Amino acid sequence: MKRTRYTKFTGNLADEIVLDDLMQALGDFLLDSGFQDPYSRFQELNGDHTMENLREAIRQALEDGSLLDTETQEKYDAMSDEQRQEMVANLVERLQEGEYIQPDQQRDQASIADTKTPGEIAQPQTPQGEARFNVTDKGMDFLGYKSLRDLLGGMGRAMMGRHDTRFEAPGVEASGSTKLYQFGDTLNLDVNATLLSAIQREGLTTPLNVEYSDLHIHQSEYQSSCATVVMLDCSHSMILYGEDRFTPAKRVAMALSHLIRTQFPGDSLHLVLFHDSAEEMPVQQVARVKVGPWYTNTREGLRVAQRILARSNKDMKQIVMITDGKPSAITLPDGRIYRNAFGLDPLVLSETLEEVGRCKRSNIVINTFMLAQDFALVQFVQRVSAMCRGKAYFTSPDRLGTYLLMDFMQRRMRTIH
């Protein structure tokens, strides 16, 4: 007969750490965009998702002091090096069991090229022999939720509802006005108006005869669905000039994805990366993207965004463009890339504005969030906003999320100072 032997539970320091807190502490490492921040504690890891770097990032998070309380920190400081290594190994194992990360099987360069999914940007490969890991969709969703919570916390008490319009329609949520019931309407009966109509017709008698023509219903605000394409600039300037502009943009895209999925289920969100060219990428993969030595092909990004929006059957269509530079490249008819980073090139500008005109004719609104204020960029964005009746926001990486989420939720023209 098989027997089970029970022993006294002595506890494990790794089990006292909440995985959500650990993932939040590793957020800067997991969302690295290629910016070499000399003040980042993960600066030496270069954002490379190897298992060795993950263990080092966990070790640095433990020694930082923000992850552990005072009592647990004292226990950790009293550990030997072997015990600390074992604790880090246990945390890596817990992250895998919690499906926040998963090991990446070693593949040679040829197999990697063959299996690259459409829209995926090729990144420098790790030397063979180094074990790697991938952040799972669950891990990405958690990071998106944390980003959304942090962004909304800076906005105060924000009401998240649906997209309001100036129309009214029969529904469940009352707006105060009433209308006569028509066949097919939601029977959200206005009892007072119905009885008043019957009394005015029959007089105050009992029993009161209520007829079909007496029925009045509450009206609710007509709520529309929206298709949104986020155009994210991943040219090299997004990490130049001593500032990381790309990582905050990625966090905002992830937060917006979580917001739409949980609060606006009728909406759709797509992500387009534009650089020398442009391609659509699943929002779940945005955390893995890094900037490269690319120019800014805004026209190609608009083309891809239009193709995506043309497939949707939503009432409202919009493009949210996040950029820090003027258009500096276009794709020629023969497939070659024409580049000019000096000023507003007449050819690049005319071709890009022609694409903006196509967006206008398709009733697509373009809202632009500028992470820089150089003259050429401002001049270009002003023309885009005038053509498409969109809005332009001069913002900074630390304020980008607040501006973008408020614009998305409120859906009305306003000036932000």
Secondary structure layout:
Blueprint lengths: L18 H7 L1 H4 L20 H14 L5 H8 L3 H17 L3 E4 L4 H7 L16 E4 L1 H17 L9 E8 L7 E3 L10 H12 L13 E9 L1 E8 L12 H18 L4 E7 L3 E4 L16 H14 L4 E8 L5 E3 L5 E3 L6 H16 L3 E6 L4 H14 L3 E3 L5 H11 L7
Parallel strand pairs: 6-7, 6-9, 9-12, 12-13
Antiparallel strand pairs: 1-2, 3-5, 4-5, 7-8, 10-11
Describe this structure as you would to a colleague.
- The chain has 417 residues and is of the alpha/beta class.
- The longest helix has 18 residues, at 246-263.
- It folds into three domains: 13-135, no CATH class; 146-162 and 225-410, von Willebrand factor, type A domain (Rossmann fold, 3-Layer(aba) Sandwich); 171-223, no CATH class.
- The chain is 38% helix and 17% strand.
- 32% of the residues are buried.
- It has a six-stranded mixed sheet, with helices on both faces. The chain has a three-stranded antiparallel sheet with strand order 3-5-4.
